[in-house]
Amino acid sequence: MTRRPTIAFYPGSFDPLTIGHVNLVERGLRVFDRVVVAMAHNVNKKAMFMLDERRAMIEEVFAGEPRVKVVTFEGLMIEAAKAQGATTVLRGLRGVADFEYEFQLATMNNLLSPQLETVFLMTEKSHFFVSSNLVREVASLGGDVSPLVPAPVLQALLAKLGRT
Length: 164
What we know:
By secondary structure, the chain is of the alpha/beta class. Helix 2 packs antiparallel against helix 6 (151-160). It contains six helices and five strands; from the N terminus they run E-H-E-H-E-H-E-H-E-H-H. It has a single domain (7-129), classed as Rossmann fold.
């Protein structure tokens, strides 16, 4: 009997992708056969990068890894995860504040789709302070974010801010 590949669905805005996100995908690939990086179209957030720009950056970062797929979605995350064949939602936790929010999401997702499991990975200690919001803020104020984002993201970020 052949085993179905395990697919983790990793949703987020990734505006922009950070080293913390990359680390979570890499660690997810140790546990799952494939990871689907899924960018949500969130009308409530003011994005720095358009969905297609974020998708291109993420695809470039993971170009050498065929087990990573990048998609966008609207609507319920659980429906998008099912459409990708995922059985697991992958989420990262940086601290206690993240846990409360993520616990609420996981509980709601379990109510709506009991067969879809949520797996939390703790962010590595060297990345726990990194967030897309912080990266955008520091970069927009002229700070050096090069240690916090992959090279293709840094280039796009600097270009977006007119600092090529």
